[in-house]
UniProtKB/TrEMBL annotation:
It comes from Paenibacillus pini JCM 16418. The active site is at 61 (proton donor/acceptor). The lineage of its organism: Bacteria, Bacillati, Bacillota, Bacilli, Bacillales. Its EC number is 4.2.3.3. Substrate binds at residues 9, 13, 35-38, 55-56, 88. Keywords: Lyase. NCBIfam families: MGSA, PRK05234.1. HAMAP family: Methylglyoxal_synth. Residues 1-140 form the MGS-like domain. This is Methylglyoxal synthase.
Length: 140
């Protein structure tokens, strides 16, 4: 069971709901997280249960970032709106940086999300199970 987070800017929320609905069968076997409104919208459109954090601008991005920093997140789908300035841009950049530092797969658009979910569906994320089994500094 992998830990997967969903985040979507306001103008991308409908796209996120449609995407998660299309792949509900893939996500149903995993532990799901989301920022506030995005999670609520996904739960209204699917039968999935999602642990919701605060809204992104109110700290939800940072809450998910805290899990990333502890290497406790396996995949993030973050549908960003590149044409709209975000008031919490520093939080967004920090989350993206943490994903790079920890090597967490991150999709920021629907095309990349599709590729990652197809890989998840095929079972290509088994390497993440090893990350959880062997913590940094432990002998393998």
């Amino acid at each position: 069971m992998l830990k997967i987070a969903f985040i979507a800017h306001d103008r991308k929320k409908d796209e996120m709901v449609n995407f998660v609905t299309a792949y509900e069968h893939v996500f149903e076997g995993h532990k799901l997280y989301s920022t506030g409104t995005t999670g609520q919208r996904i739960m209204e459109g699917t039968a999935l249960r999602i642990h919701r954090f605060m809204s992104g601008p109110l700290g939800g991005d940072q809450q998910i970032g805290a899990l990333v920093a502890q290497n406790e997140m396996d995949l993030i789908i973050f549908l960003r709106d590149p044409l709209m300035a975000q008031p919490h841009e520093p939080d967004i950049n920090a989350l993206l940086r943490l994903c790079d530092v920890q090597g967490i797969p991150l999709a920021t658009n629907i095309a990349t999300a599709e590729i990652l979910v197809k890989a998840l569906e095929r079972g290509d994320f088994a390497w993440r199970e090893l990350v959880h089994k062997y913590k940094p500094g432990e002998e393998v």
